[in-house]
Amino acid sequence: MSASAGRLAGVWLLGAALALGCRVEEGAADHPPAPGWTLEDLAGVPVSLADLRGRPVVVDFWATWCAPCEFQIPVLNELHERYRDRVEVIGIAVDAGGREAVAPYAAEQGIAYRVVIGDEELAQRYGALGFPTLYVIRADGAIESSHVGLAEPEELEAAVEAALRAGRGAPAD
User: Fold this and answer.
1) What is the pTM (predicted TM-score) of this model?
2) Predicted pLDDT of residue 163
3) Is residue 5 included in any domain, yes or no?
């Protein structure tokens, strides 16, 4: 296979993964720490990943211009409602327009979980290949799993349950 054909195949596979959605889970012994951040929510209140330690966090990188991201919202609303006492769900919007672009969209879509304003640089620090990309972070701050594209409700729930099991008996920092 030529180098250009190999690149084309790689681009096609990445496109297929983003279109269909896929789950990438680290091995049991390889759960890297999630990059830290402090971002403002839609009310201008600072939210820090470090302050959420002690319980799992679902982080969703998304944008208002991302059509598939819209389909992830009801899944995350349901997850937020079901696990609200045990898991934090955070939507990190990467829109260049910031709060002015995101707040009306979040209200229109009925987003029930907390939304903070981030940027694509933070998404890249996490290794996000496109949007939406979700990360399930354990109570100790380690990444349990990542999900590129749309995450099915059952798949996301299984990842959250794994993060909850991993946190049992683990001290929060």
Assistant:
1) 0.81
2) 96
3) no
